[in-house]
Amino acid sequence: MEGMDKNRTTAQSPFGQSILTGFRGVSKNLFIILVFLLMSLPLFTTFNEILTKIVEKTGLYTFLTRNVVPFETRAVSLILRPFGIDAKPTVSHLFIERPDGSTTGIFFSWNCLGWQSAVLLLLTLFTGLSGNFPWGRKIEVVLLGLSGTFLINFIRIAFVTVIAYYFGQIPATIVHDYGGTLFTVAWFFFYWWFSYKFILEGE
Asked: Is residue 3 included in any domain, yes or no?
């Protein structure tokens, strides 16, 4: 048609752009997940509680309660010792004596093991390792993710316990339900930045 600007380019839909890969792709996915979690935290917390009650009726709950949860309470009590917090672990609780003399008991369930973090790690691995990287480096990233996520869950629980020690049960519950999610997502941002900077794309 006459008068049409031949140099004019058609607008592209954002969905027509190429899929981001590498750290940018992982960061984009983590940001989307973070927005979704923040929008649905009340629903997510309720679903989490329902799922906990369902699993508590299975044999898996018994295995985790007898073998993993006691290890978790002891590990968290050891993390707290350098901070001057004397926590007494049992098979399912961690009892701490607060500065005002009152005692606060923190219940540990299978849900405290961080299965949500494991799911998030698995989802990000699909995007993060989609590039053409050597298998040896990919294995290093996976091992770092598994060990780091395992450790970060203990730190998260220890932090909640510190909040309970200084401020009481209710603030600790709020931090557990809401702050724990932000803390976990922040760890994954750092984990993937470190992986690309020093392992996957490092010399």
From this structure: no
